[in-house]
Amino acid sequence: MGKRLAVIGCGAIGSVIVEGVAGGLVDAEIVALMDVFPDKCMRLAAKRLDAGMPAVTDSLDDLLDASPDIVVEAASQEAVRSYGVEIVARGIDLVVMSVGALLDKGLREKLVKVAHASGASIYVPTGAIAGLDAVRALRPAGIYRVLLRTRKPPRALGYGELGAPETVFRGKASEAVKRFPRNINVVAALYLASGVEPEVEIIADPGVERNIHEITVEAEASRIHIVVENKPSPTNPKTSHLAALSVVELLRKLTGSEILVIGT
Ligand SMILES: NC(=O)c1ccc[n+]([C@@H]2O[C@H](COP(=O)([O-])OP(=O)(O)OC[C@H]3O[C@@H](n4cnc5c(N)ncnc54)[C@H](O)[C@@H]3O)[C@@H](O)[C@H]2O)c1
Hints:
There is one protein chain. By secondary structure, the chain is α/β, with parallel strands linked by helices. The protein has two domains: 3-127 and 242-254, 3-Layer(aba) Sandwich (Rossmann fold), CATH 3.40.50; 132-231, Dihydrodipicolinate Reductase, domain 2. 35% of the residues lie in helices and 25% in strands. The chain is built from nine helices and eleven strands. The protein has helices spanning 12-22, 38-48, 60-65, 77-89, 105-118, 132-138, 173-179, 185-194, 241-254; strands at residues 3-8, 28-34, 55-57, 70-73, 93-96, 122-123, 143-152, 166-172, 199-204, 211-219, 223-230. Strands 3-2-1-4-5-6 form a six-stranded parallel beta sheet, sandwiched between helices. The chain has a five-stranded mixed beta sheet with strand order 8-9-7-10-11. Helix 1 packs across helix 9, helix 4 runs parallel beside helix 5 and helix 7 packs antiparallel against helix 8 (185-194). The longest helix is centred in the middle third of the chain and has 14 residues, at 105-118. The mean pLDDT is 92. The structure holds nicotinamide-adenine-dinucleotide. The site of nicotinamide-adenine-dinucleotide has 30 residues, from helix 1, helix 4 and helix 8.
């Protein structure tokens, strides 16, 4: 059996992770599922993991008692703040989905310092976009500018019916993350990968069904222009299904489920 996995957050992303393990995509044993509403995990565990019931809990102590090798946070920025340091202090690798939390320099530096001391690693999946590998590769050679234009159906941004597209935000990444904490993790991932604060535009567009991210990176070596059009998750319209799939893909790498690894 592969690595021991624990998941915090039994919502849209947590469900896809459990499916990935139950379906054999990820060679791991899920040893704990945690949520402030443990019933959500109970339903998931009963439905998906015939091979054995993980611990289902709302307490970090119970999760840690299950001795995971990797913990995936798929819950909220608050969860990263509340549990992150304690997890990495135990030498347990941490996968962070609520990347916006890492824009807090104090928290980020503490997590890195504690993980460095314990030997743990902290991973941020590519989430709802593509190209973070290239952005990271370009960074040492100089990145000048990063732009992100996000277009989503109004309901995905918490708006009611609109007659026409409306730009609901234009400004710096640090402000965008505060105003749209559940929608704009991609901004944080781009910021952390590039080291350049992205300029952000968010548009509520009644004419689109998908969450569309248009990314431009201007760098010394390359100019990257990427458009990603994501279907919302069936269970949470604020989350793109690709974001959940990207964690499964990362877990395949971390658990050695893939021998020939392309594009890392
Ligand atoms: N990196 C990316 O590209 C990306 C993309 C989409 C979503 N996200 C983030 O991932 C996280 C999960 O997304 P989702 O769509 O699965 O959300 P969701 O609302 O469907 O599920 C989240 C679950 O976590 C639980 N939860 C929240 N805070 C908790 C806490 N402090 N302790 C324990 N449980 C807690 C909730 O009860 C809920 O069941 C969100 O923060 C979201 O913003 C990141």
